[in-house]
Write a structure and sequence with these properties.
alpha+beta, Aminopeptidase, 6 helices, 29% helix, globular, disordered N terminus
Length: 181
């Protein structure tokens, strides 16, 4: 397919890249961690110094998350460039740990990953995504994907997430109702 035949981003911009999405395995862990930790470095722009840490996620943390959620990867020409997790918690699905390498941001890879994760949702009608209050990049992308700020983010975080109090105070949530299947 030539560039002129590829689907275009809204506004007729650059072609949307051809991205393959698949569940990740333990064999993908080190590369997934490299994506997460590289993409999370920009957090230092808005997190207080006592909240920012490197790495954002360790191998042990990745493994612990893998016991609760399914990791997915976005591959561009066979290279892992984006990561996201899907976790079902009671009556909702949580999209967790969404990261795209900085060099591959703003070309639609994150949107493609979110769409795929939404297609994997089963048995619930609402999807929730938590993000930092200062993460305007994620907030813009979520709004563009049809997510809306939760009316009471703190209540949502307390009900569905198991995160440290300081992180909870620095976070907000977005929600989207999914159409019935």
């Amino acid at each position: 397919m030539s560039d002129t035949d590829k689907p275009r981003r809204s506004g007729g911009g650059e072609p949307v890249p051809s991205v393959a999405i698949r569940p990740l395995t333990t064999a993908d862990r080190e590369r997934a961690l490299a994506v997460i930790n590289e993409a999370a470095r920009w957090y230092r722009e808005f997190l207080p110094p006592d909240e920012y840490h490197e790495p954002e996620m360790t191998a042990e943390e990745w493994d612990a998350e893998a016991r609760r959620l399914t990791w997915f990867g976005a591959f561009l020409d066979g290279t892992l460039v984006g990561v996201g997790g899907l976790e079902h918690v009671r009556d909702v699905a949580l999209l967790r740990h969404g990261y795209v390498l900085p060099v591959h941001q703003r070309v639609g890879i994150g949107a493609i990953l979110v769409q795929r994760l939404e297609k994997e949702v089963r048995g619930v009608k609402r999807v929730i995504v938590g993000t930092y209050r200062g993460n305007y990049k994620a907030q813009h992308a979520l709004e563009k994907a049809g997510y809306r700020l939760s009316p009471d983010p703190e209540a949502i975080l307390r009900a569905y997430y198991s995160i440290p109090e300081a992180r909870m105070q620095a976070s907000i949530t977005y929600e989207k109702a999914l159409p019935s299947k």
